[in-house]
Specification:
By secondary structure, this protein is of the alpha/beta class. The protein contains five helices and four strands, in the order E-H-H-E-H-E-H-E-H. The chain has a four-stranded parallel β-sheet, with helices on both faces. It binds guanosine-5'-triphosphate (GTP) and magnesium ion (MG). GO terms for molecular function: GTP binding; GTPase activity; metal ion binding.
């Protein structure tokens, strides 16, 4: 099971890795900056894209980076899990709003899921593990 996690600065990559490690799955290789995402994502079983759903300022850049990554022919068909992190913060988007803001309906050629989570309060991480498990043997 090879999973890559990508996301802009401050999205919560390190925090999520910390709470998930020790579980059945370890997501490896958090890709440093977006210019390297495609290389990190080639050949993996699944891609996890994490975004701060409580910071409206980052959404348009996140949308652009995500869509340009998903347009890479080398990544066609790889399932995508979008995680809206920081769901514990009061000004966060709803999952439906996040789906809308990130234009997830426009992403084709793959399975796309989107959950709201909090790495800080460890909310909804069971759904993340379940999703990873579903793709582990494909
Ligand atoms: N409220 C809240 N804060 C969070 C959550 N997850 C992470 N943070 C905070 O957000 C900040 C960034 O978290 P990191 O895990 O370092 O984010 P990152 O994506 O690894 O950031 P870079 O390594 O700089 O790219 C830290 O101050 C975390 O404490 C969360 O679920 N809720
Ligand atoms: Mg980090």
């Amino acid at each position: 099971m090879d999973v890559t996690m990508v996301g802009l600065q401050n999205a919560g990559k390190t925090s999520l890795l910390r709470v998930l490690s020790g579980g059945e799955f370890t997501i490896e290789r958090p890709a440093p900056f977006s210019g390297m995402w495609e290389r990190y994502c080639r050949g993996v079983n699944a891609i996890v894209f994490i975004v701060d759903m409580a910071d409206p300022k980052v959404l348009s850049v996140a949308r652009e980076e995500l869509h340009s990554l998903m347009a890479q022919p080398s990544l066609r068909g790889i399932p995508l899990l979008v995680l809206g992190n920081k769901s514990d913060l009061p000004n966060r988007l709803t999952v439906d709003e996040l789906i809308d803001e990130l234009d997830l309906a426009e992403i084709g050629h793959r399975e796309v899921s989107c959950y709201g989570i909090s790495a800080k309060e460890e909310t909804n991480l069971d759904a993340v593990l379940e999703w990873l498990m579903k793709w582990a043997n494909k």
